[in-house]
Structures are given as C-alpha cells and as structure tokens.
Amino acid sequence: MSPETVGFVGTGIMGKPMAENVLEAGYDVVAYNRSSASTEDLADQGARAAPSAAVVGESADVVITVLPDTDAVESVLYDDGLIDALGSGQVYVDMSTIAPGATERFAADVDETGAAMLDAPISGGEGGAIDGTLSIMVGGDPEILGEVNDVLNAMGEIITHTGPSGAGQITKACNQIVVGCTHQAVAEALLLAHRAGADLEAVLDAISGGAASCWSLRERAPDVIRGNFEPGFFSSYQYKDLRIATHAGEKFGVPMPETQVAHEMYKTMEEMGHGQDDHAAVIQVIETMADDEARI
Q1: Do the beta carbons of residue 41 and residue 16 sit within 8 Å?
Q2: Is 296 within a domain?
Q3: Is 96 found in the same domain as 176?
Q4: Residue 47, class by beta-carbon neighbours within 10 Å (0-12 exposed, 13-18 middle, 19+ buried)?
Q5: Does some domain include residue 224?
Q6: CA 166, CA 99: separation in Å to the nearest integer?
Q7: In the chain, how many domains are there?
Q8: Torsion angle of C-alpha atoms 197, 201, 205, 208, degrees rounded to 10
Q9: How far apart are CA 165 and CA 101, in angstroms?
C-alpha cells in the first residue's frame, strides 16, 4: 500500500505540528479535533477539516490518533464511531500514550474490521513534533509498519519496532520512567548547587559535559533556572504516564522504588495546580519543601 491520505484525530500541542509535517511531506491530510481552532488552521495550510472522527476514518488510508489518555482513545474509537468507519486495507496508528492492556484490546477490535493497528507512542515533546524529530516506538505487525514507514518518517527521526501490539506503549512507559526520574534528579541537583552558592549556569555547563549529561540538563534545565515553565510536555501528562508505568510494574512484578517517588512528585505537581507547567517544572515541589528557589 502506498497511502495518499492521512487522517489525524487530535490536533493539539503535539498532533497539530505532526499533521503539518505530514502535509508538508506531500500527503493529503484530513483532520478532526473537538476544539476546531487547530483544524481550521490546518485547513488554511491545505488540509481538510472533518466534522467528526468517523469522517476521518472514512476518508483516510492511514488514520492517526494523538490523544491525551486511554479514556480519550476509547471514546473516539467507540463513542465517536472511528472503529466503525475502519475497513480492509486501512491502517490505524495510535500515537497517544495509553495503557498497554487497553492497546491490546483495541488492536484486537480493529483487526475484526479488516484494518490493522499499530501503537506508536512518541517522545521528543512539542519541539520534536514541530521539527519532525520525534522518537517513535512501534508495537504491532512489522509488515504493517513497513507500509506506513514513510508517513512516520515525516514526523520522526527514530522509528523503532519494539514488538507486538502493546510493546510500543511498554517502551514509552520505560521512556517516561527515565524522563520523570531524571527531571527529579536534576531538580535536586540544581537546588543543592543554589543553596551551596555555586554559579548555576556554570554548574550546568560542567555537568552537562560529563557522565551526567542528559536531555533534561541540555534541553530543560536552562529554562528551569530562569523560571520558564512554558510547557513542551505537560506535568499532568507526565503524571498520567507514570501511573501507566507503575501499573505495568505491578502487573509484571517489577520493583520500582525510584519511579514511585517520581510518581508522587508529579502527583504533588497536580495537587499544587502546576499540571499545565512543563514536566521539568517538578523542581517547584522541591523548592516548596525547601522554601527556596534555584534561579539566576
């Protein structure tokens, strides 16, 4: 199959720039979002705004969902009629981050329609979505992945098949464990450096070039020490993803002491009213505990 029309359901902070990159790659794009502003903007760029998720399913060779959570994907599939619109020859790619068990159930139901499903959650934040440099973790049939690989290449730099249905979601849970725990560690390090009177920018330069070098230090910490918590990825989403990870840990009997701590910190972010801040803004929890701020 050589897909010509790609449908998007969910064109928010991540989905909209992803759809723009697919449009720029030369595909016809049809899009639906419950809030119409983003699809109207896409229509101005040459896409077609659809009145419902079902119409997207009826119109596209490849249908992509980029939605906040498991409940949203389930609602779009069953309540909004997307699954009923799918049929033989179509590929449904869920690029949301949701529960692996639910993904397996959705894939089985999609298979009954004659379509095929891939779970393909993403990492890289809003910047990666805009630049088309996302990391895409794919579960499902590798032959189906081969059919839509060019579409995914329009949105990401690293596309990795990680196993059968649900494996993409497990991989994303692993990713979010590392991201959440790393943000927490960076927050503690920055507050220690501040309390001890060290130059925060110099500390970042020093440790970013050594064994501690990581994405959190390079891409988020420079904003954190300036109090810039504009979201590239919401803290509330990080909390949701860590809930998925801890549930998976319980299912498979994996001890997760560090993940549980990070989970509690992001829960506190939500309770403090900071869920719409960037996930690196977890430093605010540590700062509240210390009654101090690590800022330049």
Answers
A1: yes
A2: no
A3: no
A4: buried
A5: yes
A6: 8
A7: 2
A8: 90
A9: 9
Q: How far is CA 46 from the centre of its chain?
A: 25
Give me the helices (H) in the chain, please: 15-24, 37-44, 53-59, 70-74, 82-85, 100-113, 125-131, 142-153, 167-195, 200-208, 215, 221-224, 235-252, 257-271, 283-290
Task: Identify whether residues 246 and 121 lie together within a single domain.
Answer: no
Reduced to 3 states, what is the DSSP secondary structure of residue 153? Answer: helix
Give me the torsion for CA of 3, 5, 10, 16, rounded to 10°: 100
Paired tokens of 76 = 């779009």
- Within 8 A by CB and 6+ apart from 85, the residues are 53, 54, 55, 56, 57, 58
Residue 246 contacts by C-beta under 8 Å, 6 or more apart in sequence? 256, 259, 260, 263
- Residue 63, phi-psi category: left (phi > 0), alpha (psi -120 to 50), beta (remainder): beta
pTM over 0.90: yes
CB 24 within 8 Å of CB 154: yes
Question: What is the mean pLDDT of the segment spanning 58-76?
Answer: 97
DSSP 8-state assignment for residue 278: B
Q: Is residue 26 part of a domain?
A: yes
C-alpha 40/C-alpha 47 separation (Å) is 9
**277: domain range?**
170-290
As a 3-state breakdown, the chain gives helix, strand, coil percent values, each rounded to 5, of 55, 15, 30
Q: What tokens were used for 19?
A: 């759809």
pLDDT at 2 over 80: no
Q: Choose, from 16, 172, 240, 267, the residue flagged as catalytic.
A: 172
**DSSP 8-class letter at 156:** E
Q: Are residues 175 and 91 in the same domain?
A: no
The mean per-residue pLDDT over the stretch 79-90 comes to 97
- The pairing of strands 156-163 and 122-123 is unpaired
Active site residue 267: no
- The token pair at 169 is 């979601």
| Same domain assignment for residues 235 and 221 | yes
The model's pLDDT over 178-212, given as tens digits with 9 standing for 90+, comes to 999 999 999 999 999 999 999 999 999 999 999 99
